[in-house]
Write a structure and sequence with these properties.
By secondary structure, the protein is mostly helical. It has 2 domains: 7-57, no CATH class; 58-133, AhpD-like, CATH 1.20.1290.10. Helix content is 77%, strand content 0%. It has helices spanning 8-21, 23-31, 38-52, 60-73, 77-90, 94-107, 110-132. It starts with 7 loop residues before the first helix and ends with a helix.
């Protein structure tokens, strides 16, 4: 696999991605890249993590809450769990996440929020179990 040259947006995005998702997660994702999905990985690093997540207008905590709510509304289960795990790095609390999911119930539907609540509870339980093993 050839090593692509990266510009400032990619470097900024990767730094933000690491600060939110953690080095271990990003390292696993980077190790799993293939020639096929390199362009996609570059796109999300530059667009999501640099163009959006790196903006100074709102905090990472607020972005985390918005992201979790949107992903819950879209029923993106794996992404909801990933961003709930990332909340330890963004400052979004469990209370914040609950409030975001209450908004999902009203604006995107109770079934979507109910499902996301189940994912949140399971993810928090896993996080707590892992923290207990440390």
């Amino acid at each position: 696999m050839s090593k692509p040259q990266h510009g400032d947006r990619y470097v900024e995005g990767m730094a933000t991605r690491r600060s939110v998702l953690g080095d271990a997660h990003v390292d696993r994702a980077e190790a799993a890249k293939t020639e096929f999905d390199i362009p996609f990985q570059e796109l999300i690093t530059e667009a999501a993590w640099s163009h959006v997540w790196s903006r100074p207008n709102i905090t990472k905590r607020e972005r985390s809450m918005i992201t979790i709510a949107l992903l819950a509304a879209l029923k993106q289960d794996e992404e909801v769990a990933m961003h709930i795990r990332a909340s330890v790095n963004t400052g979004a609390t469990r209370d914040d996440i609950r409030e975001a999911l209450l908004h999902v119930a009203i604006y995107a539907g109770v079934p979507a929020a109910n499902h996301a609540m189940k994912i949140a509870r399971k993810t928090f339980d896993e996080m707590d179990a892992h923290a207990g093993k440390s």
